[in-house]
Amino acid sequence: MNRAIYPILSGALAQERQMQVFANNMANVNTAGFKQDDQAFTAVMARAQVSGSALVHPAGFGEQIGVRPAGSAERVFVAPHATHTSFEAGRIRITGNTLDMAIEGRGFFEVKTPQGLRYTRNGMFSLDSQSRLVTHLGHPVMGTKGEIKIPSGTAQVTKEGAIHVDGKPVATIKVMEFPDDRMPQKHLEGLLVSDNGKLAKNPQIQGGHIEESNVNSIGEMVKMIQGMRNYESTQKLIQTLDHMAEVSIQDVGRVL
User: Fold this and answer.
1) Is 13 helix (H, G, I), strand (E, B) or coil?
2) Which has the closest alpha carbon to 90: 205, 211, 220?
């Protein structure tokens, strides 16, 4: 079998993985606080095999004919390397729901899950049966003094994240920041996980608003079309090599 098929196949598999990332971005184009991903790849090269005789003893032309040239014994392959998340802010949209919140600039809301503390930019909050402020998944939203319980009354959120009910302060939203080189990683249920956060000093919060996804739907569609064309190109290359092998076996090797 022609070994050229294998690096082409690795490219096809890489394109398939990239298409999965694009599809996930498109599926979350309307998910509040979602951050788009980009798939990175790396080149994988086989170990170079160099003929020792070619380096130690200067050989004549006749002797060099049987010497395998120095260099890689195989071609270059491609493999998925890492998924990078873009934390660029999405558009802030008004909702009219008093408990909805959007962070201007840096920072993440901290929520409490059965697996531990997690982080999100999705500020679609509500109250559960215990009057706790929770996410759309039912996870309690953390304040600077723990879980937030909001009594009945008219609630209002200030730009600093303080929650007032009938004019009286009841809690303050906890906003965490992370260094640029140690941003949180995506985890289950669209949440983020990290141990490198610190309390934001001057958070800016808009009550009655949410942050939309930062996915550019048109840009992702263009990427998906380009990815499909690249995938089809690798398929055609594999079919061409397969046809070449078929011709070699059936025609070239035929005894007349």
Assistant:
1) helix
2) 211
